[in-house]
Each structure stands twice: as C-alpha cells, then as structure tokens.
Amino acid sequence: MNYLLRGIGVLAAVGTISLLAFSLPSGEAHGDGGGDALPRLTHKAWQQECASCHIAYAPAFLPKASWRRVMGGLGQHFGEDASLDPATQADILRFLEINAADAGNSRIGRKVMQRMDAQDAPLRITESRWFVRKHDEVPRATWSRKSVGSAANCAACHRQAEQGVFDDDSVSIPK
Q: 174 near 157, Cβ under 8 Å?
C-alpha cells in the first residue's frame, strides 16, 4: 500500500511538472497576452551601449534598413553624440540586422512588417504604422505628461518593457 501511494505521488508530480512545462511560454512567446512579446535576446554591446541612455529597443521593432539608418547616424543620434568605435558599431548593427523585423525571427517583427511598405525605413519606432495602430487609443496629451515624457519611453506604460513584454494586460499609464 505504501509503494502504491508513493507511485501515485510520483505520477502526480511528474504529471504536474509536465503540464507546467508544456503550458509555459517558450522561446519568443513570453508574457504574450496578445502576441506582443519579443524574443529573449542577449547581446552584451547592444545592452551596454544602447541601454546606457534608454531601453535597448528590440531589433524586431524596425526593419534592417531602419537600423542601418540609426547606426549610421550615431554622431547625431536624436540630438546626442552616441558615437561608438567602428568595431562595436559594426557588431551591434550586425546583431540588429539579424534580429530585425524583416529578418523573420519573431512574431512581433512579422506584425511590424505587415503594416510597413517594403521601401519604408522609419528612423523612429514611434513612426512605424504598427506602433501608431497599437497606440491609436492613447491621447496625444498622454505622451507629453511629465511621467511619460514621450512615446519613445516604452517603460513608462509597459512596466515589463525591458524584459520584452508589451502585452495589453501589463500596461499601466501613469497619471
């Protein structure tokens, strides 16, 4: 009888673990709520250099041509000199291109590209048709609130932005 109870306990534990393992999001889909989760990416130079001033924007938010424009203009990067040594700049650009919206590596990147003409290369994520559509219900005045700052400050409303989670369920617009 004791062995039978242990056996049932082991089966229950294995079943529970299996159920959890197969129901948890994997790979790109974490915190997904509506398909707006990003691949978990790590790249030391990208995280170190880009996140020193703002969140390290996910490569899937823009196509390769846009990232080339951004990285090609680091000397005058939205009013700042964000110049890098050529090797670091090339390394980050390579990473951005491999993971860009049009690289086909992520669901959110494919969504971004569905709303973009092939020749489009917006310099700002906030100028993409995908971004505009996703934020069409946000009043213009919200972006200028001191607690938000601008549409580029993802983390103001998307509390898990730095972890790549942008689903509607985790949005909290500050007053």
A: yes
Q: Looking at the domain assignment, is residue 53 inside a domain? A: yes
Number of domains present in the structure of the chain: 1
- Please give the model's pTM, rounded to 2 decimal places: 0.74
Amino acid of residue 33: G
**Bridge partners of residue 173, in order along the sequence:** none
Return d(Cα 99, Cα 90) in angstroms, integer: 14
141 inside domain: yes
**Enclosing domain of residue 52:** 2-170
Three-state secondary structure call for residue 158: strand
The DSSP call for residue 78 is: T
**What digits encode the pLDDT tens for the residues 141-161?**
999 999 999 999 999 999 888
Q: In sequence order, what are the beta bridge partners of 158? A: 171
SS3 state of residue 110: helix
* Structure tokens given for 83: 């110049």
Q: Quick check: is 91 in a domain?
A: yes
Strand partners, 80: 77
